[in-house]
Amino acid sequence: MAKKADIPVAKNQTIEAEFEDVTHDGQGVAKADGYPLFVPGALPGERGTVRVLKTNKSYGYGKLLELAVESPDRRIPPCPVYHQCGGCQLQHMSYAAQLRMKEKHVRDCLQRIGKIAHADIRPIIGMGDPWRYRNKVQVPVGMKDGELVAGFYRERTHKIINMDRCLIQMEKTDEVVQKVKELCGNLQIPPYDEERHEGVLRHIMVRYGLATREIMVVLITRTDEIPNRKKLVRGIVEAFPDVKSIVQNINPKRTNVILGEETRVLWGRDVIYDKIGDIRFAISAQSFYQVNPVQTRVLYEKALEYAGLTGEETVIDAYCGIGTIALFLAGRAKKIYGVEVVPEAVADAKRNAELNGIRNAEFAVGKAETVMEQWYEAGLRPDCIVVDPPRKGCEPSLLETILKMSPQRVVYVSCNPATLARDLRILEDGGYRTEAVQPVDMFPQTKHVEAVVRMTLKEQEI
Ligand code: SAH
């Protein structure tokens, strides 16, 4: 490890740097006499002037002051607030370069962390149009110079920056937010003041069902009462005939958590509907629902293909959320069991099964690692297990239960290539072979990447 004296650069020093690589979250990597410097916004192949901001033992951080040589992948970020918002990290690179970088990240993790050399890693599936894909938006509301503003918190602060449009949001959700903002301003509905814990309107949330065009508006308030509530509701409904649900969610607490516990319908239904493939989903204000419906379908089709079902199989969908993958697979399976830790999501899953006339799906509330162990003890031996865990990956005990259940197939859907690779290694050591890996870009312009993996139980050697 380098001693202080060995570090070739010092804080506040200005150097000429050449960028060799980019990290998976969009920071350029330059080497100063072999010492890596991470510089946000720089791209491989670029050269420029960098100020050293911080030096650690084995790497440091810098700020790009000026570019001498630009990469052909460099783009001018189309969003005017790209640098203040922090929601997107990759708008300064071409979409082709984003895809290349994400695919490489999956490949690198599998090789370095998973030590998986043999898997067939397919070219990443990107979007034809990598903008305007999100179906849900939630914006904080505040007051600036006597005007109601809504937009986003400046990165790492609680200062609200007003925003007229967000280029990764579907146009419709943008339009609705702007209208609600205008109506609330005109009707003098007081925005929430975080410091004093006063005022009414905390957040505006809009959800849009791309397949059905149905719109939900959620007004998140500190108080029970909304001044001029009826006029506000009328204004929204008159402006957007596709609004099918307006609900109020009350969050009286001093907290960063957006939604409170109580939700009441102000107008229309408590849910909107959407479809992925042939499956209909009822989505409430609190439901977890994938935000990129176009790529979600691509991802689930891949999961279905990798599951290789014939109609005779028993399947487990672990970390099932509102049952999306389970319901997508149900038509090709004999029986499917879903397990999820959030009780409201499981209630949605059951309701969605009913909505689609699906009778071979059963859902349980609980930790996947606990419930699956109970199922194992009760004798359940599925043919296929699908897991779709949060970023931290699967609990080791759940992987052990998978090995004991020894299904022919495991389909792993992951939003974090590093934990994916770690978990695949454990399953490989337990007798599975990673056959195919399909990265999918669910979140263009951001650093996130999703992947779906097919693993098959190796033939027992005698
Ligand atoms: N498969 C779903 C949701 C995936 S997100 C979809 O595609 O829509 C991951 C889910 O895992 C979340 O719903 C989260 O609530 C749930 N979860 C997190 N930890 C869990 C655990 N230990 N056991 C079961 N579910 C868990």
From TrEMBL:
Its EC number is 2.1.1.190. InterPro entries: MeTrfase_TrmA_AS (IPR030390), MeTrfase_TrmA_CS (IPR030391), NA-bd_OB-fold (IPR012340), SAM-dependent_MTases_sf (IPR029063), TRAM_dom (IPR002792), U5_MeTrfase_fam (IPR010280). Keywords: 4Fe-4S, Iron, Iron-sulfur, Metal-binding, Methyltransferase, S-adenosyl-L-methionine, Transferase. GO terms for molecular function: 4 iron, 4 sulfur cluster binding; rRNA (uridine-C5-)-methyltransferase activity. Residues 8-66 form the TRAM domain. GO terms for biological process: rRNA base methylation. PROSITE patterns: SAM_MT_RNA_M5U, TRAM, TRMA_1, TRMA_2. The active site is at C415 (nucleophile), C415. SUPFAM superfamilies: Nucleic acid-binding proteins, S-adenosyl-L-methionine-dependent methyltransferases. S-adenosyl-L-methionine binds at Q290, Y319, E340, D388. Belongs to the class I-like SAM-binding methyltransferase superfamily. RNA M5U methyltransferase family. NCBIfam families: rumA. This is 23S rRNA m(5)U-1939 methyltransferase. It comes from Caldibacillus debilis GB1. The lineage of its organism: Bacteria, Bacillati, Bacillota, Bacilli, Bacillales.
